[in-house]
Amino acid sequence: MSVLVYTESEQGKFKKTALEVASYAKAVADQMGTTVTAITFNADDTSILGNHGVDKVLKISSSELENFNANGYASAISQAAKKEDSKVVIVSSSADSKYLAPLLAINLEAGFASNVVEAPSSVSPFTVKRTAFTNKAFNITTIDTNVKLVGVSKNAFGVKEQTASATTEDFSPSIPELGVHVDSVDKVTGQVTIADAEIVVSGGRGLKGPENWGMIEELADVLGAATACSKPVSDLGWRPHGEHVGQTGKPVASNLYIAIGISGAIQHLAGINASKVKVVINTDPEAPFFKAADYGIVGDAFEVVPKLIEKLKEFKAQQ
Amino acid sequence: MKILVCISHVPDTTSKINFTDGDTKFDTNGVQYVINPNDEFGLTRAMWFKEKQGANVTVVNVGGPETEPTLRKALAIGADNAIRVNTEAKDGFQVAKQLANVVKEGGYDLVIAGRESIDYNGGMVPGMLAGLIGANFVTNCISLEVDGNNAKAMREIDGGKETVTTSLPLVIGGQKGLVEESDLRIPNMRGIMMARKKPLEVKEPVDASTETASVKFEKPAPKGSVKLIDADNVGELVNLLHNEAKVI
Ligand SMILES: Cc1cc2nc3c(=O)[nH]c(=O)nc-3n(C[C@H](O)[C@H](O)[C@H](O)COP(=O)(O)OP(=O)(O)OC[C@H]3O[C@@H](n4cnc5c(N)ncnc54)[C@H](O)[C@@H]3O)c2cc1C
Ligand SMILES: Nc1ncnc2c1ncn2[C@@H]1O[C@H](COP(=O)(O)O)[C@@H](O)[C@H]1O
Prior knowledge:
The complex is a heterodimer.
Chain A: E1 3-6, E2 9-10, E3 13-14, H1 16-32, E4 36-41, H2 47-50, E5 56-60, H3 70-83, E6 88-91, H4 95-108, E7 111-116, E8 122-123, E9 126-132, E10 137-143, E11 148-152, E12 167-170, E13 181-187, E14 199-203, H5 214-223, E15 226-229, H6 231-235, E16 256-260, H7 266-272, E17 277-282, H8 289-292, E18 295-298, H9 301-318
Parallel strand pairs in A: 1-4, 1-6, 4-5, 5-12, 6-11, 7-11, 14-15, 14-16, 16-17, 17-18
Antiparallel strand pairs in A: 2-3, 8-9, 9-10
Helix pairs in contact in A: 3-4, 5-9
Chain B: E1 2-6, E2 9-11, E3 19-20, E4 25-26, E5 33-35, H1 37-53, E6 56-62, H2 68-77, E7 81-85, H3 92-106, E8 110-114, H4 125-133, E9 136-147, E10 150-157, E11 160-167, E12 170-174, H5 189-197, E13 200-203, E14 212-218, E15 227-228, H6 234-243
Parallel strand pairs in B: 1-6, 1-8, 6-7, 7-13, 8-12, 9-12
Antiparallel strand pairs in B: 2-5, 3-4, 9-10, 10-11
Bound molecules: flavin-adenine dinucleotide and adenosine monophosphate (AMP).
């Protein structure tokens, strides 16, 4: 009966979203009066999961599943759910989880609610709140199937700590036909990704040209942030497509989003609205971004950003 | 090659989002509908296959008669024929079930859908469809080539991209990158005239239950007004982000 949660790791280490979905699973399990089982793929030390509400860990060690594979992972999670007789299965909103979740839903004949932002308001009927219309609204949805699948939005529920420990058990699921094979991975290493970042620094057409991104990168560096950009900036080839955020780009749900030289078009805002605190730096006080932001500076980015870098360096030195 | 392109009919990206009937229904008043942007990239890639590799392209939507102008637009862009499954789209699973039936009856080798629709943003339909018909599946797809039965695709992952090989039958969830922004086509007069004569088949739905139900909608709480900081006092921003917002 336990609630099953898929806790993602990278190179053996758990991601922050793994701890967030574990915390979410614990909240659901408490409401249902049951326990939490986590499933992990090639993770090293799983003790941290106990501190976030997990009672039992099913540990998969498999060289065949070393690379993420949506079919393989969905099948393994579904076998774990059947073994644990789980009525609720929780995943995150990472690119990988979003990839496997619909396949898992079909495997388990589970109704699926994605982009869920709060613990269920009721477990019978099972009722959750999710974002809709690219963050312009919320939708209250019931999941009416026997088994339920919930995809939790990043940074919406938060990471909750407890003092407890989890038991571990090795788990060897049968591995299906994988169907899709990874040939090569092209990933920037040593850089914070938009998906994982607590802080995102984003530049728009107001920066005039790609040669001016040095200060954006430096600001991101001081803050330990990821860099992003508006759509025209990636369309013009000033920055790679992977940095394009907004309604038709990547969604951003960071703690802090700093928009520099971005006007704040509705399609841009839709994709970054889930961020907790928004800062805008723009020469035009009428720019729509000022209506969406928490803090704003009306000023020229070429003057304000270097000053901001300097002040942040002073601040970091004092910490 | 027979290609099916799934077209979701969604409010234009600039639409104001409001609700009626005690916040249970989306208010369509004054809303312009468009082809879901992710599907537009997919349709354009399908046109490339048609022109370069001789594929036949069908577009499909699960929805009421009001979605037909959107399908006609897809025909004007160059699809060969269109299918509308005549039932209101209620949840991802029910739509995927209808599409699975269309794929089975039409024997499509490649299904191009979008990564997600911009209205309900489920990101569910393509994966569920692949699961239902037992096809391979690649989402967040930013490039696709097909050679006989083999396919090579690129997919955006967190922090980069990966290249994968797979085979038909295949379902993809496409997005920007699948074709360049500048390759997107606007229907011309000739296309619009020709689209009028192309077949748009209305298919009755198969039995399919829903698995989820929408109870109501809520709008985000109104935001407080922005706190402005003087451009000569940037240190104050650092101070506020640390002491007030507590994000650095
Ligand atoms: C279907 C569709 C989907 C879209 N999806 C997206 C999306 O996902 N993401 C996205 O970003 N956009 C999207 N757009 C585009 C969107 O409508 C805007 O065109 C875009 O966001 C504008 O980018 P920008 O703010 O960088 O540029 P602009 O609108 O040109 O704004 C530049 C800003 O910089 C300011 N500025 C100029 N000089 C300086 C300076 N020296 N210092 C500081 N500020 C300065 C200006 O005052 C201005 O406000 C979409 C559009 C459509 C039609
Ligand atoms: N009613 C529908 N009719 C046809 N295709 C759809 C429909 N709804 C969703 N799709 C397809 O599935 C993709 C993802 O939609 P969604 O799962 O709703 O986010 C869309 O980009 C379309 O390609």
